[in-house]
Amino acid sequence: MRHLYRQHNANPVVAAIDPRIRLLAAGLLLALVVSSSNSAFPWLVALACLPAALFCGMRLPVLALRLLHPLFIAAVILALKAFMGTSEDVLLLKAASLSLTVHRQGLQEGALIVSRIMGAVSVAVLLSQVMSFTETMAALAWLRVPTGLVEVSLFAWRSLFMLYDGAGVVYTAQKNRLGYCGLRRSLRSFGTMAGMLTIKAFDSSQSITLAMTQRGYDGNMPLLCASRPSRSQIVCLCLFAVAIAAAWKLQN
Question: N or C, which end of the chain is more exposed by having fewer CB within 10 Å?
Answer without folding.
Answer: N
